[in-house]
Amino acid sequence: MDGWIVWPGFVPGLVALAVSAAIALGGRVARRPVLAALAAAAGLLAGWWWTMGLVTASPRQLPERLPLLAAALLLLAALGGMAARRGRWVAPAAAGMGVLATGWWMGGAPRTVADALAALPALLGVAALAALLLRRPAAWSAPAAALALLAALVLARLPGPAVVLGVAAAGAALGALAGGQAGRGSPAAAMPLAAGMAALAALPVLARGAPADWLVAAAPASVLWAGALAGLLPFLRMPSPVSAGLAALGCLGGVWLLR
């Protein structure tokens, strides 16, 4: 493993966990569901910013895109949460904007039609993955998806800070559990963590594109959708945690075999 995976590499995860848990618990105690729901997004931003340090508005490397993306998604989710009382369409609209913005940003932020067409596969792929990760069938869903993504990144051995960024994402998702039901929130509140995980999961595909990297990208989505897919087949009736675990193990086994 590379030099990122040492004790200092786990500090961003602890930072993300502490920030997320503090905000989630504060929102729960103060009876501010919107605040508790944004805890994971705040923890993600804190952990990623701690990892990457000073980030410019025009990042050159793919991992450098993530902290600024997390900040923009948190701001969008906060604005969507504050404006949610004006109509039921506000939260889904904010979530959709965040999903599309994530695809655009990770696709190279194209500014012309020609550049957008060239980046269309990456743009649509990341946006679609972010949309899939919005699903939250249970309180354990987001932490389980983040841990599956972290494990896949570890097995894939992608050079650079991807694993440490994954540790921060897992810490943010776990810390948000302190918010209880108040931390579930709306699609707009779930969007920053979902879109952030999608951007992180897409890093191996965008940077290297090996067969194992595609399974890395599929790992978090498989956890969230395994129960729904298993429910469509009568002979696969099983508890959601079991189906999610089996799906994650399948992706992780594929990453290990193909790396």
Write the layout of secondary structure elements.
Elements: H1 7-29, H2 33-37, H3 39-52, H4 65-82, H5 90-106, H6 113-118, H7 120-132, H8 141-156, H9 162-175, H10 187-207, H11 211-231, H12 240-258
Helix pairs in contact: 1-3, 1-9, 3-4, 3-9, 4-5, 4-10, 5-7, 5-10, 7-10, 8-9, 8-10, 8-11, 8-12, 9-10, 10-11, 11-12
Keywords: Membrane, Transmembrane, Transmembrane helix
Transmembrane segments: 6-27, 34-51, 66-84, 89-107, 113-134, 146-177, 189-207, 214-236, 242-258
Question: What does this 3D model show about the protein?
Answer:
The chain crosses the membrane at residues 6-27, 34-51, 66-84, 89-107, 113-134, 146-177, 189-207, 214-236, 242-258. Keywords: Membrane, Transmembrane, Transmembrane helix. The chain is mainly α and 259 residues long. The chain has a domain at 9-138 and 157-207. The protein is built from 12 helices and no strands. The protein has helices spanning 7-29, 33-37, 39-52, 65-82, 90-106, 113-118, 120-132, 141-156, 162-175, 187-207, 211-231, 240-258. α4 (65-82) packs antiparallel against α5 (90-106) and α10 (187-207) packs antiparallel against α11 (211-231).
Span between termini:
13 Å
**Estimated share of beta-strand residues:** under 5%
Please state the average pLDDT score: 86
What sort of overall outline do the alpha carbons produce when their principal axes are compared? globular
Structural class: mainly alpha
Specify the biggest β-sheet.
none
Low-confidence stretches: 1-6
**Overall strand count:** 0
| Helical proportion, percent range | over 70%
Tally of contiguous helical segments: 12
Rg from alpha-carbon coordinates: 17 Å
Order of helices and strands: HHHHHHHHHHHH
Keywords: Membrane, Transmembrane, Transmembrane helix
